[in-house]
Design brief:
mainly beta; Immunoglobulin-like; 3 domains; 5-stranded mixed β-sheet; 46% strand
Amino acid sequence: MCNFTYQFHTMKNLYLALFTLLIMSASSSVGNAQSIDLAVTKVHLSADQIAIPLGMRSSMAMTVENADSSIVEAGETIDFMISIDGTIYSSSLELASDLSPGDSLYHNFGSASLHQFPDTSMSHSVFGVVQYTLDSNISNDTLVANYVTTPFSNNDWQAVSLEVLSPTGLDSFDIDNGTNSPPNIDLVRVVLRNASFVQYLKWTPISYRLVLAQDTTLLTGSIEFDSVGNGDSTFRMLSNQAIMPDVPDSVGNYSFCVISDQPWDLNASNDTACYAFAIVDLYDPNDPVNWPWAIEERDANTLSIVAQANYIRFEGVDQALELRIFNVQGGLMATEFIDGPTTLSTNVLAPGVYMVQAIANDGHTWGTKFVKY
């Protein structure tokens, strides 16, 4: 233990000496220019305070404060550097506005600076350094932070929901006895919630899987806000056809699911959220009484049936017709007789999928499906 402590302090002193020399070298050419003092106040990683989940790939950020009485003017460039276990990351920022005395500046190093932490428990020395050509006080330009990777960090991502936004008619899609193919999934909205105490910085990757039947796709996105902490959510809008699963073309009930796949997630019970849908076949040629809407279509152009959410409109009616409404099980729900253009309310029907059949005196039959919301 004593040997480890000695080695740590030796490494720390070497880093401090190196960064001090770099800053002194940059400051030596300034001469008697205006005095400025920038101080590093915080080094940020995606962590539960100082505990980092095993295998975490984290972005990084720094907070610096203008500790002097002079303004750092807009257009000035500030250089940042973070060292993690000897791996050095650099970043620069041109100020978009003045940094007044006492104000703090938060700077994320961006998506190109991601550090991969190991899958083993160990301590990590993190050095944060700010460099500015007019900085006259180098004593507060460097901050040393200590982190540990551990399997005991409170890391938990919850899959809240998966919604199929397009197509809108995927649920209860009728494959008409195998003659039609179900539509492709075009647009999906996924919601994931940070249920842990690990503060995920912007650009830190998060991983999750899309699963439908035997089709599984592992995806990696990144945090899009400055940070996502406990109780915060991230919304993923997915439209890339290359990652969408194939929709089954067989009758059945299916679940399209998102599964959180973060490393060392401590709670597996909330990792999955699903969108349930059914593929149905409403055509039965062997039972024309219960399933009459697919029998006759040759005279379909003489009658127009327009089905809306709360009503059905019949146009082009030039003869007496008997109207019948069936549910998806073939049960007769209502009967009506018309002899001209007519609008029928469907408010008395419960939400669901129905079929409407129009029968002429000569036996000709028209029909269509409609959804009552």
